[in-house]
Amino acid sequence: MPPTEGAQEQALLDEMSRINNDYGVLQRRTAQALARTRHELAETQNVLGMVAHDLLTPLQAVAGFAEFLLDEPNLTEQQRHLVDRIAHSAEMMTGLTDELLQSMDVGASSLVLAPVDLVALVDSVSSRYRLLGNAVSFDRNTPAVKVDGDAIKLERMLDNLVTNALKFSPEGEQVEIAVVDEGPTVVLSVSDHGPGIAPEQHAAIFAPFHRAPGTAAAPGVGLGLAIVRQIVERHGGTVSVDSDLGQGATFVLRLPVMSPRPTSKA
């Protein structure tokens, strides 16, 4: 006999109940897997942080001793070459360790928000690079514009961009920084005259540990731009690059301009 309408309805309800139970089990298992993944990621970050901190002191000591030896006038040419290689390797490893520490700190620590004059910050950073003999330009007459931000992290963001521009620029070529107030957003750009970046690499260069083709010999491990993106996005902004091969690169950051704070009435 064919099933009655009531039996069909009951079978449908039973099937829906089974599906609902299976969905609940899947949700619980997914939540548990996510919790385990977060815990394992936190543990990995803690271990990496401790290792990186432990590496910094001996690396700095090696670099310091190597620099001291390079000042020794009685070294043979071969000895000087070997010590120079030691100093260069120690510098590379120190930079790698510092990038790892920066990456973990940016992702884990809270933002300390306060009004930040972006123009004053850029002026201070660009002046520091010029004092070190780098060709970095910025118009000091740019009108002030404030953002609600973490000054330390914003300075780190700018440092990474300028360092990246200098790294890929021919010696003596100018790196230009500009700040433009566009109303609801402020645009900060850093331009270089380096080899440029192919359009198909524009999104990938902001991924952690990514190295664009032809940059393997450059210092670093590919975390600098990832840190920039992380800081910008945590401030509610965006970062992009305008570039093509042979045409240099301009990194463009957009951050929300700080809204006027309401004044209390007496």
UniProtKB/TrEMBL annotation:
Catalytic activity from the UniProt record: ATP + protein L-histidine = ADP + protein N-phospho-L-histidine
Known EC number: 2.7.13.3
One Gene Ontology cellular component annotation held by this UniProt entry: plasma membrane
Main location (coarse class): membrane
Protein's UniProt name: Sensor-like histidine kinase SenX3
Organism: Nocardioides psychrotolerans
Compartment(s) of residence: Cell membrane
Keyword Transferase in record: yes
SMART domains: HATPase_c (SM00387), HisKA (SM00388)
Gene Ontology BP terms: osmosensory signaling via phosphorelay pathway
CDD domains: HATPase, HisKA
Keywords, alphabetical: ATP-binding, Kinase, Nucleotide-binding, Phosphoprotein, Transferase, Two-component regulatory system
Domain Histidine kinase: 50-259
GO terms, molecular function: ATP binding; phosphorelay response regulator activity; phosphorelay sensor kinase activity; protein kinase activator activity
